[in-house]
Amino acid sequence: MNTMNTIECARNKIASPLIRKISRLECQDINTLSKNISCGKTVILKNKIHNLKKPCAIGRGLRTKVNVNMGASTEVSSIKTELKKLKISIDYGADTVMDLSVGKNVRKIRQEIIAHSTIPVGTVPIYEAAQELEHKRKNLFKMTKDDILEVLERQAEEGVDFFTVHAGITKEIIKKIPYKKRIIEIVSRGGAILANWIIHNNKENPLYEYFDNVLKIAKRFDITLSLGDGLRPGSVLDATDEIQLYELRKLGQLSKYALERGVQTIIEGPGHVPLNQIEKNIKMQKQICHGAPFYVLGPLVTDVSSGYDHISASIGGALASYYGADFLCYVTPSEHLRLPSIDDVREGLIASKIAAHAADIAKGIPYQIDWDRKISQARKSRDWTKQIKLSIDPVKAKRYRSQSKLQESSVCTMCGKYCSLKLIEKCF
Ligand code: SF4
């Protein structure tokens, strides 16, 4: 095992095979990539011991990445279904997956996902720590820092590439939550578990108090920490409130502290944000967190889109990534309503990928713009095979085309013999 982690290689100007591979994949020269990794503006998600076909870099000057959340719940649990979700995520171009399993078989599901995944796998270890106490029929409040660190260590040894740790939700911050002003105090699952624990025990968040221990594990395995926003707004009316920004400042401090100790971090962000506050949110995060990659959960631009939250998140995600967010967490049509089905995963992923790609065009990433050029050329020449192949969802595009009853194969049923592309074909 290479003893140097990614930041150390970048700082020592060592072009490790991983850095070289990312440089090729992202069309970014090694010096720029290494410089951005050294100062925490770019991260590479890959556990040292995880044999990954497609490691993923997130950050400055790179294509916007998309994560798929998956995993069983306490109500619905099937390893087979979760593996199908993983397959569809990889087939449709997800950059990472997060296994958020709780309930039965947590460990088995994670191990299977890691074994079958060609892309980085993230987790929220506090879920498993809470789950283990339940198995032992112990109260959640009895969780100790060793219970948490043991789970982190075990998951690191299994090959998890990035951890969400809600280290910013401190005892001090919880006292500041404006219970009467916020519509929904806490919507983050990890945030709620920790807030409950802190309030009940009147003690500091172990992930914050023992952050050095967390860093040691992360450094040893080259795991990236995703600093979770336990107090993210769960309603557009709570967006950008004081408590959200208070936690963000804490995450900025933790990110700097981790970077100084050679651990890569990304910062998690909201949540539910009205359109007119997205730019401000991204710019503040970049400033407060010294340019660390920003991982936004959506954001949803309205609270009323139940059943269509993937569209709401796609609108927010496009704008957020245009203003500088680096990593989008997808949202499915079933958000707020049920555990996503396999179809929900596909729809949510495509919606987020469209958002990410739209932003990448606007950001001027040349090879992303080239994709649009190629499909437009195929469209002009009515090369349906090529057009379908270049579509973001070739399966759906092919199905739509093949379901048409065509009288003439050189046009489509939209305009038929008045196909503008055909009419002007010989004019220019
Ligand atoms: S028929 Fe109309 S929609 Fe279809 S390819 Fe021609 S111009 Fe485009």
SSE map:
Blueprint: H1 6-11, H2 17-26, H3 30-38, E1 42-45, E2 56-59, E3 65-70, H4 79-91, E4 96-99, H5 106-116, E5 121-123, H6 125-135, H7 145-158, E6 162-165, H8 171-175, H9 189-201, H10 206-209, H11 211-221, E7 224-227, H12 242-260, E8 265-269, H13 275-288, E9 294-297, H14 309-322, E10 327-329, H15 342-363, H16 366-380, H17 384-390, H18 394-403, H19 420-423
Parallel strand pairs: 3-4, 3-10, 4-5, 5-6, 6-7, 7-8, 8-9, 9-10
Antiparallel strand pairs: 1-2
Assembly type of the chains comes to: single chain
Rg: 22 Å
| Biggest sheet descriptor | 8 strands, parallel, barrel
Ions, cofactors and other ligands present here are: iron/sulfur cluster
Residue share in helix: 40-55%
Strand content: 5-15%
Order of helices and strands: HHHEEEHEHEHHEHHHHEHEHEHEHHHHH
CATH topology of the largest domain: TIM Barrel
Instruction: Give the CATH class of the largest domain.
Output: Alpha Beta
What's the number of helices? Answer: 19
Could you characterize what this model shows?
By secondary structure, this protein is α/β, with parallel strands linked by helices. The protein folds into 2 domains: 45-54 and 63-364, TIM Barrel, CATH 3.20.20; 381-423, no CATH class. It has 19 helices and 10 strands. The chain has helices at residues 6-11, 17-26, 30-38, 79-91, 106-116, 125-135, 145-158, 171-175, 189-201, 206-209, 211-221, 242-260, 275-288, 309-322, 342-363, 366-380, 384-390, 394-403, 420-423, and strands at residues 42-45, 56-59, 65-70, 96-99, 121-123, 162-165, 224-227, 265-269, 294-297, 327-329. The strands form 2 sheets. It has an 8-stranded parallel beta barrel, surrounded by 7 helices. Strands 1-2 form a two-stranded antiparallel ribbon. Helix 14 (309-322) links the parallel strand 9 and strand 10. Helix 4 runs parallel beside helix 15, helix 6 (125-135) packs across helix 7 and helix 14 (309-322) packs parallel to helix 15. The longest helix has 22 residues, at 342-363. The protein is globular, with a radius of gyration of 22 Å. It starts with 5 loop residues before the first helix and ends in a 5-residue tail after the last helix. The mean pLDDT is 95. Bound molecules: iron/sulfur cluster (SF4).
